[in-house]
Amino acid sequence: MNFDFPQLLKSLQLKVTPQRLAILEIMRIADTYLSPEEVQEQVQQRANGKVGLPTIYRNLEELSAQGVISKILHPNRQLYYYFCANRDHHHHFVCLACRTVQDLHDCGCAEMASQIDGQVEFQIMQALGTCRRCCTQNA
Ligand SMILES: [Zn+2]
Ligand SMILES: [Zn+2]
Ligand SMILES: [Zn+2]
Asked: Which of 20, 27, 72, 108 supports an S-S bond with 80, CB 3.0-4.6 Å?
């Protein structure tokens, strides 16, 4: 799938910078979630120069705050990020063994919101575990 990242960033009022585009392209190609350190390594390879980890962190945070990428809430409390091309409302099942991410389409969000006396500002729902392939391999 070809993604128009400059257009996506503009539509979210985020500045289009070579670094952001490099980060997004790296994350799009990856079929697993990535740590900021892994993103940094690949950005540096592309740029053929040094890019500070704080810069990578800041960009990842901005992109995830706007919903361009998803934050993975890992039990080891390290931060990981994942780019999902699916722009529709959905959630993720994250395999902690092989780092793949599956889309979950059925969710009770609308129903949950209807039970809340107030307004939802943030909603975090994510399932983590072991995917079928990894379960079979370890059996
Ligand atoms: Zn797996
Ligand atoms: Zn997804
Ligand atoms: Zn939902």
From this structure: 72
| d(CA 90, ligand 1 centre) in Å | 20
Measure 48 CA to ligand 2 centroid, in angstroms.
31
| 106 alpha carbon – ligand 3 mean position (Å) | 7
Query: Nearest ligand to the C-alpha of residue 93?
Result: 2
Long-range CB contacts (< 8 A, 24+ apart) of 74-83? 74/128, 75/128, 78/35, 79/35, 79/36, 80/33, 80/34, 80/35, 81/27, 81/33, 81/34, 81/36, 81/39, 82/27, 82/32, 82/33, 82/34, 83/24, 83/27, 83/28, 83/30
Q: Please tell me the pTM assigned to this model.
A: 0.87
pLDDT per position as a tens digit, 30-89: 989 999 999 999 999 998 999 999 999 999 999 999 889 999 989 999 999 999 988 888
Which pLDDT belongs to residue 121? 83
